Amino acid sequence: xxxxxxxxxxxxxxxxxxxxxxxxxxxxxxxxxxxxxxxxxxxxxxxxxxxxxxxxxxxxxxxxxxxxxxxxxxxxxxxxxxxxxxxxxxxxxxxxxxxx
Length: 100
What we know:
Elements lengths: L2 H4 E12 L2 E9 L11 H5 L3 H11 E2 L4 H5 L3 H14 L3 H5 L5
Antiparallel strand pairs: 1-2, 2-3
Pfam families: Phage_TAC_7
Protein name: Phage tail assembly protein
């Protein structure tokens, strides 16, 4: 499968500080069904904050903590959430979407 369909890097508007390390980007990988456990697909498709706060740490590199998720800039949470939703779309749907 094409890496573009299985992995996406999101540049953060507001970097996350982890100790003395500044995290400026998050790599998300396409979730397997197990990473979606405890959530509802509809909640993920709606970009529900609670669902995203559950799923994103499971598929992110570096793995984000609950505290880091709670302190994310809303614009960064939205950008990450859009990528999660995009991972759940069928290839045929993605083919019809405009590219950046």
